[in-house]
Amino acid sequence: MTLDSTWARRFVERAADTVSENRTALVELDREIGDGDHGENLERGFSAVRAKLASQPDDATPGALLKMVATTLISTVGGASGPLLGTAFLKGAGALGDATEIDSAGVAAFVAAARDGAVLRGKAEVGDKTMVDAWTPATDAARAAADGGSEPAAVLRAAADAAAAGAESTEPLVARKGRASYLGERAVGHRDPGAQSSALILAAAADAADDVAAAATTTSGEA
Ligand code: ADP
Ligand code: MG
Fold it and tell me: Out of 3.20.20.190, 3.40.50.300, 1.25.40.340, 1.10.8.60, which CATH number does the structure's domain 5-214 have?
């Protein structure tokens, strides 16, 4: 089953929900190795995104909806994560183009372009203890799943699971980018907040695909 704008809308809602549910946890992670604002920064951005969602035209494509997320995050999120995650969404949306249906290869291309956007903007490499440590394994897992013939929802789930493992993998690292890099060895033992939030956002994308599939099953069951 391909993904369409119903999925994209649901993704945006679920991303806003998960950011709000995890606001305190993200603030606490950022308090350990940053300035304690990551949860607030993202909540401000995603509540602005949620507010704009209702006024998007009915025929908005997934790419157009996710581009709205990008520009809204860039303009409303203070802190490093706004432009970084915003550029990830911008490049990811660009990879979707004006397609109305996204297949498995399209999902993998979305995740890869989002990772490339974050790298373009922040110049971090894997192992620098940033959100790139979530997006890169997600990209690899999505590509492998798509190449292996998985459905789009399963490609997103593979990406989300790999991102969660990637976020966990930041714990033993010394940070080489962002505020946490000022801490040197003191960052060791703490998970990177941006990697954690990126994993949550990819999980929201996968959950949204499951929602859409469940709704389709219910509808066809009733028919
Ligand atoms: P700030 O650091 O300005 O307070 P946030 O707290 O919102 O911004 O976001 C911090 C997160 O941004 C970090 O946890 C990290 O994942 C991400 N980050 C910071 N610098 C970079 C970078 N150069 N490349 C990729 N991600 C980065
Ligand atoms: Mg911060």
Answer: 1.25.40.340
